[in-house]
Amino acid sequence: MSVRTEPAIKIAPKSIRRSWLLGGLLIIWVAVAQILQGKATLELAVPENSKFTAWAGEVADSIRDNRNDGLAFKYFFNPIREFVDGFVNIIREFIAIPNGSSSIPVLGWLGVISLIGFVVFAVSNVRMAFAAVALTFACGALGLWTDSMDTLAMTFAAVILSLAIGIPVGIWAGLSDRVLKVVTPILDLAQILPTLVYLAPLALFFLIGPASATIATMVYSIPIAVRLTAFGIRGVPTSPVEAGTSMGTTKRQLLRKVQLPMSSRTIIMGINQTVMAALSFVVIAALIGAPGLGKPVIDALIIRNVGDGFVAGIAVVLIAIMLDRSTSAAITKKDTFVPPSEADRKRRKLALITAGIAAIVGIVLSRQMAWAAFFPKQIDIGSQVANASDSAVTWVTENMELLTAGLSKAVTVGVLNPLESILANSPWYLTIAMITLISLILGGIRSAIVSATLLIAVVATGLWYDTMITFTQTIVATMLTMLVGVVLGVWIGRSVRAERALRPILDAGQTLPAFVYLIPMLGFFGPSRFTAIATGILYSIPIVVKIVGQGIREVPVNMVEAATSTGSTKWQLITKVQLPAAKKSLLLATNQGLIFVLAVVVIGGLVGGGGLGYLVLLGSSKPELQGKGLVAGFCILLLGVMIDRIAQYMVARNSAPKH
Amino acid sequence: MVRNKRVGAKASVLAAAAALLLTACGGAGVDAEASAAPSGDAALAECGSYAIAMHAWVGYTASAQVITEVAKANGCDISQVTLAEAGVTYDAMESGSVDLVVEDWGGGRWQEWADRGALVEVGDNGNVGIIGMYVPQWMADKYPDITDSANLNKYAELFVTDESKGKGAWYEGPPGYTTIGEKLVSANNLNFTVLPQGTEAALIDVFTKAAENETPAIGYWWTPQNFLAKVPMARVNFPTNDWTDAAEASGLTDYPELPLIKLATPKAMDANDAFTKIVKNFKWTNDDQNAVAADIESGTDPAVAAQKWIDANADTVAGWLK
């Protein structure tokens, strides 16, 4: 063993014992599963309901029946819906849809672009302003001006409402420990819950349309705003707060003059993340009637038009980059502590006024002239881009079939089927017992109790078999994600040039809606469980690569130098020093990978994944199975919570001081 | 202090912008140019604004687009809302965000919503749906008796894939479509595993590859669908049943022929304007639909494809408006 050469890393004897224990357990599991294959799997035929899902269906029905005259609807849900609908429409009429009796929105395309340029210039700098203008114009050039504006409007509406709730709650949670304690589990839950899962229930309460879509987006983005705001307030150093208190400032003054200004950077970062979260909802929201770029993506999925879907996906990415970079630029601007000189301020003021006048000219023109109101149809490269991506996909499908089919077969036969036979096709009690034991070894007694409780809850719902099918695919997808993600993560963690090259691809990968690559995936691999897995991998790789890269970069320089000076090779350096030292990041990356894979489980159901994802889809379109769909969503949540908890207990254990 | 001043400067510029914007609101010069759009027939000028649900398949798009174009030409304000079929759409009709479904395959699932007064059945649209299990044409040529369900087990081995657990792979229809795969398999003792498919796209992929590479496949398909014209397939016949007897029908049954119907909101049906008339009277054949759908699929803009059919069938269209 070359462990001796790296004195920095010690392997505790306890963890060696642990891995032996795990190995033995796995062997027993495989053996027993082989003997009891096919027994007590609790498989429930697709068209059938369990007692629990039938009951859930009845509840959903009674909610529907009450919708018109139930008191909760009259005085709670309906007013909320009307308010949100109204709010969204005001913003849409401003930039996206005809305003009142007019045939254009309040602002035509030139007006919108001028306004965006001006606002971005005001909050950041001139380079950013031009970039924002160019990116927005590019959306129009793709032939998707109106859809892009609808998306922008929906995003703004959701972000404004999210911040209106998220920032005050975040401040409160930042100031009071008790509030933070109450709020944290709710935030965890909202972030783990796969987005497609709460669409159907939300539509039950808020009906189909922009209101439901906006509220669904808010469920997803409010937690981020709350978390980062609370984090910012808590991060304010104690000395200024104490100084303020000793000078007799009131709590209110303290908040306004000290805590808020000092945490403004984190809060703006929260705004940035809230915007990105809201934007990632675009396509999913289209499933419940939201206007915008999601619609062409879904349409393209339906008629298998790869190109058009891709073009709409690019527009989403462009808007994401535009919003991300402008808000990030606002953060860095906050960082300059050197006060501008008198001349600088004068120049800036003059520039602002000039830009303002230009913006106003643009706005007025866009209301008076047809060419400035309707985006010019001559500038439309959408079909060229669509054709190019169409032919690229066709080429891969036709020429790489050996590779794609081979990969799919290797994973299905080599990993997926064996794992499925252990998890899903062996008795439920065996699976529960083994998972509980494993989480006992990995995360301790509390994580074991949590796993056992959640798994028994799954059995009680009657969807055990489908849950295990989904669990199997989630595990395989996460394993493959980690395999690729760690390699790429180490690469970008070690090389600044690699980081720079991959960064835009990773950013695009994170914002490109998963629906866009479903059809190409189908073309490559055909409808199968592997296709669902591949979709999950594509979706979760960017976040894993980023976290691993960050972890590698944060490995103390002296550790790396020590290893290099003792003559370790590059390979030894990576495997014996950098990866072990980045263990915490690796665990976090695995956890996030799993959660991201789970988030697209429902999408996997579209391409042959079966399991819970398919049941969610089934439930939303077959009324007699709506209860089953709702419960399937709930089971995805249970899986997510279980995985998340085990991982958190594991991290807590591993970062505890060694003894 | 410095910062405050700057914010002040910014605010004043923004305020000035807002003020100018408001004055600009008064004269919307663009409208004068844009309102030169065609104004409707005088008799039917009062047509309101309606939203048509747009569903997952090209045939549906063809029907919906033709209705859209005819209604627009008669002064109606039409928007199209893309939605998943069945439950989601019925909910949307209840909430008033969608007014019309031009082709419902739900087989009566909407009854619950109709009972609550959320939607009305408006009768057949003239298209008849024939659902079934299909094999690629090359299989029917090579194994002529495969189209009789009694012989399927003989060939089950051909259909085995990594996905199908040692039995034949049975590609089931997407959620939201009427499917009875499990029943067919168990009632006929077929040695097949029903594989749930999430989208029509997945089935198209399966059948396209089966035809191109001459690989075996059996899956759910239906007409009217212009896909059959491009990729020829043969329908497997199952023992038919008397569908008037619900108890019997759950047995060895095949899919019944399904007259496709229109669903609309009471609002649309009570308005008594051009839209009401079009919705009530719209009726065309499977061939009509396939013709428009084929154009759309080959890349023609749906609006253009619909208009082409409307121009060629002016008499039929005139009949809808009576």
Radius of gyration of chain B, in Å, reads 26 Å
Helix-strand category of chain B: alpha/beta
DSSP helical segment count of chain A: 31
C-alpha termini separation of chain B: 74 Å
Beta percentage of chain A is under 5%
What gap, in angstroms, lies between the N and C termini of chain A?
23 Å
CATH level 1 class label of the largest domain in chain B: Alpha Beta
Which word captures the global form of chain B? elongated
Number of domains of chain B: 2
Number of strands of chain B: 9
CATH architecture of the largest domain in chain B: 3-Layer(aba) Sandwich
Largest sheet of chain A: none
* Helix fraction bin of chain B: 40-55%
Structural category of chain A: mainly alpha
In terms of DSSP E residues, the strand content of chain B is 15-25%
Shape type of chain A: globular
Helix residue percentage of chain A: over 70%
Average pLDDT of chain A: 84
Note poorly predicted spans of chain A. Answer: 1-11
Count of extended strands of chain A: 0
